[in-house]
């Protein structure tokens, strides 16, 4: 895990790295004043996208930072890999759809837990999932 002045980057190579990425999200969310419920939702969403990295791409990274999105401050999570990519993004965002042995809840579940989720992917060129939750006002 690396931390610079404005983001935490966690290399995701093995299942234990999922825990590290999840904790990075929890720590930043707590520091930003998110409720315990929101912290749990954020860390669960991070687990889902990090698990997709280990399951489908093998390796990648999770970046957690505070950024401006749509004119507001947000806790932004980026999950990026150089894996096989997603052939049908709309289908991958449907509950129950999985190209592996999973339940097909990863991306749709993460989308429900966060305020926004965007997927960019091209076959053979990897995937970038960006999701965010608005920082509580007054913080």
Percent helix range:
25-40%
Q: Which sequence of strands runs across the widest sheet?
A: 1-2-3-4-6-5
- Secondary structure tally, helices: 4
Strand content: 25-35%
* Shape designation: globular
Measured on Cα atoms, how large is the radius of gyration?
A: 14 Å
* N-to-C order of helices and strands: EEHHEEHHEE
Largest beta-sheet characterization: 6 strands, antiparallel
Structural class: alpha+beta
Strand tally is: 6
Overview of the structural elements:
The chain is α+β, with helices and mostly antiparallel strands. It is built from 4 helices and 6 strands, in the order ββααββααββ. It has helices spanning 15-31, 36-57, 89-92, 106-113, and strands spanning 2-3, 7-12, 60-69, 72-81, 116-121, 127-134. The chain has a 6-stranded antiparallel sheet with strand order 1-2-3-4-6-5, with helices on one face. A hairpin with a 5-residue loop joins strand 5 (116-121) and strand 6. It is globular. It starts with a strand and ends in a 5-residue tail after the last strand. The model has no long low-confidence stretch (mean pLDDT 89).
How would you concisely characterize the structure shown here?
The protein has 139 residues and is an alpha+beta fold. 37% of the residues lie in helices and 30% in strands.
What is the fold's blueprint, element by element?
Blueprint (H helix, E strand, L loop, with lengths): L1 E2 L3 E6 L2 H17 L4 H22 L2 E10 L2 E10 L7 H4 L13 H8 L2 E6 L5 E8 L5
Keywords:
139 residues, six-stranded antiparallel beta sheet, globular
């Amino acid at each position: 895990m690396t931390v610079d002045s404005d983001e935490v980057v966690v290399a995701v190579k093995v299942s234990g790295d999922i825990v590290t990425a999840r904790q990075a999200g929890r720590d930043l969310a707590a520091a930003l004043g998110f409720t315990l419920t929101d912290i749990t939702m954020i860390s669960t969403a991070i687990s889902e996208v990090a698990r997709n990295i280990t399951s489908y791409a093998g390796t990648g990274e999770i970046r957690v930072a505070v950024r401006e999105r749509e004119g507001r401050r947000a806790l932004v999570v980026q999950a990026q890999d150089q894996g096989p990519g997603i052939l049908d993004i709309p289908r991958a965002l449907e509950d129950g759809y999985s190209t592996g042995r999973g339940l097909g809840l990863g991306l749709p579940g993460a989308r429900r837990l966060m305020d926004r989720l965007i997927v960019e992917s091209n076959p053979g060129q990897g995937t970038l999932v960006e999701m965010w939750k608005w920082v509580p006002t007054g913080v």
